[in-house]
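Teaching assistant here, posting this on the class forum so everyone can see the example we discussed in section. The complex has two components, and the goal was to see what a joint structure prediction looks like when all of them are supplied at once.
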Amino acid sequence: MNEHDDLSFGAIFNDTGSRSEPANTAAASTDEPVVICDGVHVRYKTLATGKKLKLGGGGGMLKRQRGIQEVHALKGVSFVAHRNESIGVIGTNGSGKSTLMRSITGLTPTSEGAIYAKSRPNLLGVGAALIPDLSGARNIMIGSLALGLTRSQVEEKFDDIVEFTGLEDFIDLPMRTYSSGMSQRLKFAIATSVQHEILIVDEALNVGDKKFRDRSEGRIRSIRENAGTVFLVSHSMRTIKDTCNRALWIEKGELRADGPALDVIREYQAFNKEAKERGE
Amino acid sequence: MDMAKLAAEHGLDRVGGRPSLPQYVKQLISRSDFTYTLAKYRMQSENERNRLGMLWVLLRPSFSALIYGTVFGVIMQGATARPPDFAPFVVIGVFVLEFFNTSMNGGAKSIINNASLVQSLPFPRIVLPIAIVFQNLLNFIPTFIFMALLAMMWGGRPDWDWFLFIPLFFLFWVFNQGVAFIFARVTVHFRDLSQVTPFISRMIFYTSGVFFELKTMVEKINPDLQPFADWQPINNVLSIARGILMKDGVVPYDYFWHLAIWAFGIFIFGFIFFWQAEERYGRDE
């Protein structure tokens, strides 16, 4: 633990404080960093192609503006995530939460700073690999293969996945006939059937009925218990409270707070209340 | 105070790096189940969408053969020096070229049309162009059988030469795969190129001797350009296929090694060229 003490980054939260959550005792015993963000800046250049809407104005196609705009999405974010932690990421819309998660997976390059990880972090998202015209059963196959399982591993897990979705009666129907809740369940079941070392969940727990939500939270917890690290991006403070032991609060691209989930949420809610009173 | 040092102490790697070439090949091999299943399932779903299903695999090249046969064989009769046995000549040309065209166009779209897949899951990206070309190969098998049946209708007879199709289509596949690798990466850098590929394939169509004998044509224009006809890879494939299937066909055996040089050269170059941009695929530009 002492190896962290000489780190002068204010944002780093030393994960050995007294925490009420039982899961934390396990975390403290393996205080091993798995993801390190070191002063991460992300700047985007986007081609602003749209012309300004002007009713009745002339000009037309040729006058369309094609200016390049720079967006400074992250402004120096640093933190260390450890094995067995489950980290909630909160912040208002457009604050940079998703950009941070995408940088951690390596999809968005950092403009400054560096990100280190034990293994390549996975986004909990398998939807893009699925083929709507094919049956749920075939999609379980292709989705799990996309996540890196072999064919025989998928065959082994197949029944468990089907059971978890609760879609036994529909599994041979094409996925395009599923309701959105049903396909979300299928995707979640496939995505979490694999043991992830570092998993990023972006607002995926808010789907389905209460029963499925509880089961999903249980899955996330079991991934964490099996020596995984989970990042959970959510606007539901209840979900974060129930599943996370630590929280990061990102505001306007900066890390505003980093600490035990309950403390950070309290701070965040106080900030939001204040902003509301100011009339923002 | 150094985070990079902390990372190094615990064996953490920097995110967004590119694996070495041997590592990359190893990753690719471990994903062979995925590659194969992706190709198979996508083929099924694409063909199930149409009412006539798999039949379209045969109908598409038949229609093109019919059109080109009509235009160049009937309407413009006499305008061009028509090779003998024009019908099987055009059919073989159009059907075989279809595998190349679909591979080039499919390769060009393989990364840009799968952006969300590339952005959400880690796997060697080269799986995507491989899957699309394999899918085209699976589609090509019934086309080929149909083509052989048509050739027999026009007097071709199966003989030992037909076994030459195995090395021929293997080389053709390797060649198409290499071309698909190159187009897959280039369209990521210049997205607009996917708009241009249909023109490129048309250009190739008109210069590869699909409905005329390239060798005779080149002879007429400038005899010094003969090496162009002898080394044009598509012409190599078409000439060998015609030599095997047509009634009085003669197989130009030295085209095999011309094609082999092309196929492996393009494949190896394409593979490395694609791998060099591995970390860029799916990133926001």
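For the discussion questions: Chain A touches chain B through 51 residues (CB under 8 Å). The beta strands of chain A are 33-48, 67-82, 86-90, 112-117, 122-123, 198-202, 229-233, 246-251, 254-260. Think about how each of these relates to the inputs above.
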